[in-house]
Amino acid sequence: MYSNKENLKEIISEEKILSRVKEIAYDISNKFLDEPPIFISILKGSVIFVADLIREMNIDCEIDFIQVSSYSGASSKESIDFIKDISININERDVIIVEDIIDTGLTINFIKEKLLELNPRSISIATLLMKPEIANIDFEIDWVGFEIAPEFVVGYGLDFNQKFRNLRGIYILGGNESE
Ligand code: IMP
Ligand code: MG
User: Fold this and answer.
1) Would the pLDDT of 58 be above 60?
2) Residue 172 lies in a domain
């Protein structure tokens, strides 16, 4: 049994997610026909997204992981801690950062800056979700799966206190309380 399952309200179905992931993969595949890009998945939230994304790609690609800590519980921390660095050389390579959600934008700003220091040929960003009303970023996000309202969501990799990552859709937590 899921704890709190009664408080979950689905806002994006598995079906919708998977068809959007296919579109994004198709688009990325067509953009990197010459040399395989490196997907850098931000742990832990984007593992499900990156797993589905790379399996829809029809070009060669590589994958690596990076981990920072930015959230504990449902409130954003001001600063970011670096927990795990990438382990492959991205010098002169095309990098695609894969994120689960851009909320305040703090994490993606930090990671993009860090990776730029390693002299990649290009950096682009694919995020499954984005909260445009609160995201504070001064660059384009290349691929956004879905824009959502500034509510806390779980599922498809996204957690609340490490739970609910295994849900197949995206859910608002506490969604029934406001109804
Ligand atoms: P940001 O630095 O504020 O953009 O937050 C980004 C990180 O916080 C994401 O990588 C998520 O791991 C986490 N996060 C932000 N919003 C949510 C949410 O609604 N549900 C679950 N995790 C979230
Ligand atoms: Mg994340």
Assistant:
1) yes
2) no
Does 49 reside within a domain? Answer: yes
Total structural domains within the chain: 1
75 or 114: which leads in pLDDT: 114
Q: How far is the CA of 105 from the centre of ligand 1 (A)?
A: 9
| Predicted TM-score (pTM) of this structure | 0.93
Atom of ligand 1 nearest to the CA of 152: 19
Q: State the chain's mean pLDDT as an integer.
A: 92
**Any atom of ligand 1 within 6 Å of the Cβ of 106:** yes
Q: What's the CATH code of the domain at 53? A: 3.40.50.2020
Measured from the CB, is residue 136 less than 6 Å from ligand 1? no
Tokens of 127: 């995020």
